[in-house]
Amino acid sequence: MTTLNYTLVSHTVFRLLGIPGLEDQHVWISIPFFISYATAMLGNSLLIFIIFTRPSLHGPMYLFLCMLAGADIVLSTSTVPQALAIFWFHAGEISLDCCITQLFFIHSTFISESGILLVMAFDRYIAICYPLRYTTILTNSLVGKIGVIIFLRSYGTIFPIIFLLKRLTFCKNNIIPHTFCEHIGLAKYACNNIRVNIWYGFSVLMSTVVLDVVLIFVSYVLILRAIFRMPSQDARNKALNTCGSHVCIIILFYGPGIFTTLTQRFGRHIPPHIHILLANVCILAPPMLNPIIYGIKTKQIQEQVVHVLLTIHK
C-alpha cells in the first residue's frame, strides 16, 4: 500500500487571473467595476451618514437599512479593489492567508446581507399586520440585538471554513481563474479529500441563505394576505408601496445568485468567463443599486439627501 506524501509541495501563494479569455479587455472591464465601486461607496456612506445624523430616521426600518449599507461596503471592499489591481497592474498574486481572509469576509458578509433582508421582511410584516404595536414590538434595543445575532450567525457559520482550508495541502495548482477567492474554488486545488468542505459549505448554504429565502417568502405570503384583506384601495396601495423597495432589493440580491447557480449547473457549454462575470455581477450590483433604489423609493431619504446636498453646495 502506497502512502501519498503531501509534504513535498504545498502552495502558499496563489495567482488570481481575473477573467480568463478576456485578458486583453481587462482595462475596459475595469471601468464598470470602478464606477460600481465608487457608486457603492458614495451611496452607502451617504445613506449611513444620513440615517445616523437624522433622529427622524432612527426607526427600525432605517436602522436595518443602515446595517445593509454597512454590509454592502464590506462586500464591495472585499472584492473590487483586488479585481482592479488585477485589471490595472496585473497584481494577481495573493497569499494563502490573504485568500482565506478574503473569502471569509465575502461569504460571511453575503450571509449577513441575507439575514438583514430576512429581518427587513419581518419589519414589513409587523408594520403592515400590527401597525399599532409596531414601535412597541420593534424597539431600538431589539433591533440592536437582532443586528448582533445576524453578524454572529454569519461569522460563526463561516469561521470553521478557515480551519477546514488550513488543514489542506495545496499541491495541484496555484492558478485561480477568478477575480476573487471563494471556498470551494480554493479547496479544489488541494490534494486531500475535500468532502468535508463540500458538505459543510452545502449545510451552511441550506441553513442560512436558503432558509432565509423560505422565511422571506412566508413573510410576504402573510403580508399579501393582510394587504388584500384591507377595506380600502388606498390603504392597499400604500401598504404595497412600503414593500416596493424591499422587494426590489430581494430580487436584486437573490436573482443573480440563483441565475448563476442555474448556469453553473445546466450551462455546461457556457464559456468560463461568462460564469466569472456573472459571479462578479452578484457582488457588484446589490451594493451599487441598493442605496439608489431606497433613495428613489423612500420619500424621507430623498428629502434628507436633497437637504445634505444643498447644505454642501452652500
UniProtKB/TrEMBL annotation:
The keyword Cell inner membrane does not apply. Coiled coil: none annotated. The chain crosses the membrane at residues 27-50, 62-91, 103-122, 142-165, 198-227, 239-262, 274-294. GO terms for cellular component: plasma membrane. Keywords: Cell membrane, G-protein coupled receptor, Membrane, Olfaction, Receptor, Sensory transduction, Transducer, Transmembrane, Transmembrane helix. It is a multi-pass membrane protein. SUPFAM superfamilies: Family A G protein-coupled receptor-like. GO terms for molecular function: G protein-coupled receptor activity; olfactory receptor activity. Residues 43-294 form the G-protein coupled receptors family 1 profile domain. It is found in: Cell membrane; Membrane. Odorant receptor. Belongs to the G-protein coupled receptor 1 family. This is Olfactory receptor. The lineage of its organism: Eukaryota, Metazoa, Chordata, Craniata, Vertebrata.
